[in-house]
Design brief:
The chain has about 300 residues and is an alpha/beta fold. The protein is built from 15 helices and 9 strands. The radius of gyration is 20 Å and the shape is elongated. The structure holds NADP nicotinamide-adenine-dinucleotide phosphate (NAP).
């Protein structure tokens, strides 16, 4: 489609279904994943396999990156065997990972010297949104590069918003994470509050979820918690990472966000307690400990 060759680096919870949607939309696709076995499914569906980000970049006009943290994006893009070694003038790099705005700006400047346009394009909508191709995509970088990759972004997302120059997509995503974390902690607090004070927390959720407290979290997470399901979804370690990105930015600009500072500590506590691989809604664990009250156990 469009004669554009697409490459996808990082085939985890988000990257694999996004790559699959690009393949289904008819793009010629090359994939790379550090753990080779995760690429097998896409290769069996018709994707080509690259053995390094550099090899993938050499075979692609547009390179999507979907790895964990700032250091990981820097490694696969600028490190040994990275995208930069296979980059060619006119190539576009689309980074869907959630990383520090400052890291996105640094990558943008470095790749520009190679004639590569970079877009920071973090996403929201979770694994479900990635599978259904309905992600919200927040884009920073050059607007003309966005227009060239728009057909690809439309294969993976349903809302694409240009925010501004390099790093601005990441600022929007960090802002989003302030709200998401606040919802997770508020949900956890209200569930334990209601139960310990003597009400049926399932009935409380039924009563309040279409009132003024209505939100994505109350629509999607309580039933999982009532069923004892704390599997990700969105890992608490990634939520902690995103909140630490917010707090780094808070420090950089001399801001004060007291609520987010507390929520950051709660998610750091999840990681310190070995719960980083659990869903972000599992932050209720921290509220359970503080109150010696456990959901569904009284
Ligand atoms: P994940 O399931 O843990 O997958 C991470 C991917 O990154 C894997 O393919 C992993 O390779 C690769 N990776 C990590 N470090 C690497 C390195 N140093 N070198 C090469 N490859 C590396 O994570 P995810 O949930 O897909 O999240 C990916 C990004 O999307 C994160 O920035 C996250 O914050 C963001 N995000 C996630 C969600 C969500 O609901 N999960 C929602 C919105 C945004 P291996 O397979 O070899 O480990």
């Amino acid at each position: 489609m469009n004669g554009m060759r697409v490459g996808c680096i990082g085939l985890g919870t988000m990257g694999a279904p996004m790559a699959e949607n690009l393949l289904k939309a008819g793009f010629d696709l090359t994939v790379y994943n550090r753990t080779l076995s995760k690429a097998e499914r896409l290769v069996s569906q018709g994707a080509f396999l690259a053995h390094s980000p550099a090899e993938l970049a050499g075979k692609s006009d547009v390179v999507f990156v979907n790895v964990s943290d700032s250091a990981d994006v820097i490694r696969v893009v600028l490190g040994e065997g990275g995208v930069i070694e296979g980059a060619h003038s006119g190539m576009i790099l689309v980074d869907n990972s959630t990383i520090k705005p400052a890291a996105s700006r640094m990558i943008y400047e470095t790749m520009r010297e190679k004639g590569v346009s970079c877009l920071d394009a973090p996403v929201s909508g979770g694994e479900i949104g990635a599978i259904n191709g309905t992600l919200t995509i927040m884009v920073g970088g050059d607007e003309d590069a966005l227009e060239r990759v728009r057909p690809m972004l439309e294969a993976i997302g349903s809302k694409i918003t240009y925010i501004g120059g390099p790093g601005c997509g990441q600022i929007a995503k960090a802002a989003n994470q302030i709200m998401v974390a606040a919802q997770m902690v508020a949900e956890a607090e209200l569930l334990i509050f209601a139960q310990k004070a003597g009400a049926d927390s399932q009935r409380v959720i039924e009563a309040i979820k279409s009132g003024a407290a209505q939100c994505w979290t109350l629509d999607n997470k309580p039933q999982r918690l009532f069923a004892g399901n704390r599997a990700p979804g969105f890992k608490s370690s990634l939520q902690a990472k995103d909140l630490n990105i917010v707090m780094d930015t808070v420090k950089e600009f001399g801001m004060s966000l007291p609520g987010t500072a507390i929520n950051t500590q709660l998610f750091n506590g999840m990681v310190a307690n070995g719960k980083g691989d659990q869903d972000n809604s599992a932050v209720i664990h921290m509220i359970e400990l503080l109150n010696n009250e456990y959901l569904g156990e009284s």
